[in-house]
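Support case: pyridoxal-5'-phosphate complex. Customer-provided input:
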Amino acid sequence: MTELRSIPFSPPDISDEEINEVVDTLKSGWITTGPKTKLFEKQIAEYCNTSKAVALNSATAAMEMTLRLLGIGPGDEVITCAYTYSASASVITHVGAKVVLVDSGKDSFHIDYDGIADAITEKTKAIIPVDIAGVMCDYDRIFEAVESKKQLFNPSNDLQKAFGRVAVIADAAHSIGATYKGKMSGEVADFTSFSFHAVKNLTTAEGGMVTWRDIDGFDNEEIYKQYMLLSLHGQSKDALTKTKLGAWEYDIVAPNYKCNMTDIMASLGLAQFKRYPEILGRRKEIIEKYDALLSQLEVTSMKHYDETYQSCGHLYLLRLNGEDEAFRNDVITKMAEKGVSSNVHYKPLPMHSAYKNLGFKMEDYPNAFDMYKNEITLPLHTLLTDEDIEYVVESLRDIYKD
Ligand SMILES: *Cc1c(COP(=O)(O)O)cnc(C)c1O
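Agent response - structure generated as follows:
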């Protein structure tokens, strides 16, 4: 074995461009929501081919504010998948609605498309599918499922009425820059929430963005304004407008929430976004290299590129064929001993205390458990060298040999 390396799981890739842009903001005299946030929103909307985008302080906030925009709350049900991070489901509880979890498809990291229609009741208002690892869901099948249950839908306001069916809110925390049937993540679901958390493909340290498709009978400026009110105390003027000479007066129209993005965050995002095509290209190279090197081992990697979709290459998910939890956990420990940091995406929600306490039982989600039990996620980030990738695979090969 070659010399021991130390390979972190997903360190942020911060260049001088990000540093200079942040310094520029710090020196500008305006550090919270302002011109850079608005520019970042404009660039992301353009990238996603949507009319508008709203920058917030996380994907979690983006999903929660979207549920609130739709007027979803107590008495309503919202569907998401068992195989995800807590945020996809916790936002449903934040608004007081009931979480409904659907299993994964057989041998799939995505939601079971065949299980969606069965989970829809007359109380269902939205579904939050998860674009895991940067691979978008099969949205045609999701829209087909919600359309098939249209007759059960009970709208409780004009926005819900405009949809006339369960709304599709993508948890796209992993999928900025991914495509599905030639369309960008952001323009496929009714609403799409991106994350710019420190470990994500494109980072603002913490941060998120929501985009939406045009809605019949609704003015995009009005929807944008609703998001502004939801995310900034229900205040009729934002901080920058209020700072204009003599323009002190404002109204609070509702006792709302606080989850706006700052210009410091947005400057990180602007610089990252400029570098993003290059970042996506390198991620693709790494995935192709892993795929080639791992083909000799008894493992199955998630497929990132296909005729119908192009992933943005966020996570490298791997199944250790035929193995169980104990074997997988042992592999992670042994990889760590060799200096390689790996992870599991995800421990399904019904295995966590919070969701057990809500009454969920893991035995009701057999496909999710099968995906989880032998899954391991390898380091995938743009600070990896080709030698690092070879070292990671060699480490795994050595563990299999022992
Ligand atoms: C990171 C992540 C989130 C949360 O993103 P934040 O920006 O941290 O709120 C939501 N869903 C998934 C699948 C994630 O990986």
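The first helix runs from residue 16 to 28.

Case will auto-close in a few days if no follow-up is received.
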